[in-house]
Task: structure prediction
Amino acid sequence: MLFRFIFIISAFLFFSACAANKEMEASFSSQVEPDHSVSTNNKLAVLVSEKGNVSESKPYVKQVVDALKLRGFKNVYSYNDIPNTADSFDLAVLIDLSKRTDVREYQKDIYDFVDNGKTRSVCVRTGGSTQCNDEKELEYEVVGQSMETESLTGYYFSLHWINAKNKKKVMLNFGTSYEEECSDKAVYSFLISQTISRLDFENKDKHEYTVKMPEGYNCS
Result:
């Protein structure tokens, strides 16, 4: 009996831990200019796009630099430590992180029990006699509609790759997530690591993906 109890408790803890593993969803897209190329031998300067959300993006420059190094780039500088020489880097990588909350209205069906015009006989036996009564049959169906509102927050991470010599665009990468249960910091960090890990320097790409986070992952 004791063994069975321990087995049940252990199984419960195991499956609870498995169920607690969070899944995060996002999408990735990439555009590559055919006449240009990107190599991990290129020297990169990671800058914050002045056209984007500067204050939101600046705290994540170091993470972008580190992620690019993990991706194989050997020489990556942040905007704080770019060497003061004209030919110090090959590509400028302009990053932008932002979020936007949209509110939309939609029609919601209202359900209730409705008389369908039919009856059924319900009999109750009391003592030695049986009494039957006809009852109306009810069906659960749409009886109307109401206008509802909902909000949806999108998180966005973009990298614009610019040739430092001729100022022409080389590549654009874009990551998006509508994660609702994590903090802004956690979603941004997730988008940075996933977007950069999926870089393809030769082909255009666009796909959605789901990542099962490590056990005990905290997205606060």
Summary: The chain has a mean pLDDT of 86. The first helix runs from residue 2 to 20. The radius of gyration is 29 Å.
